[in-house]
Amino acid sequence: MQRRSNAYHISVLAVLMAIIIIQNIVPFFGYIPIAGLSLTTIHITVIIAAVILGPRDGALIGGIWGLIDWIRAFVAPTSALAPIVFTNPLVSVVPRVLIGVMAGWLFIWFNRRKQPTLGLTLAGVAGSLTNTILVLGLIGTLYRNQAAGFYQLDLSKLMPYLLTIVGTNGVPEAILAGILTPLIGTALLRFKRN
């Protein structure tokens, strides 16, 4: 039984690592453009890793995403702002690692209280918002002048602009994660128990 459990764990971890890499490489798979917005879906893979495999492996999958973003900022930036902000691992890697930590522990807490579906939903929402708030908050804190120049805003209008991005991108991403995490997570958790 232990061998089957280890094989399941390693298999799921490998598949999720592959999905993260594919989501970063294949256009429109990890970042979906909708009506002028770019909705991120990669964080859902990190959240699924965290609730299925635990916070440590969720942090590992998030770290892989962050490392890919960090490398891409040097060699193939996705925007003009990326080489400025995502070359800093504090912005590109740390928030992605913390998605796994936050989602994993939140799910464990609710699962121990016999509320796994609520735990999956809240892990999805919290994991998504962890990414959005930390990335935009760090950009606003560490790169105020560069970000204001990039967005062609007066410095005093930068934080309201970033909060608007939280509302237009972050909230739909959190809703999507809150819907998909229980749908995917429930099936994978059921398979894990069998």
TrEMBL record:
Key words of the record: Membrane, Transmembrane, Transmembrane helix
Transmembrane portions of the chain: 7-26, 32-53, 60-84, 90-110, 122-143, 163-189
A Pfam family per the record: ECF_trnsprt
InterPro entries (UniProt xref): ECF_trnsprt_substrate-spec
Highest taxon in the source lineage: Bacteria
UniProt-recorded Gene Ontology molecular function terms: transmembrane transporter activity
Leader sequence segment: none
Gene3D superfamilies noted in UniProt: 1.10.1760.20
Keyword presence, Iron: no
Protein name: ECF transporter S component
Annotated source species: Lactiplantibacillus garii
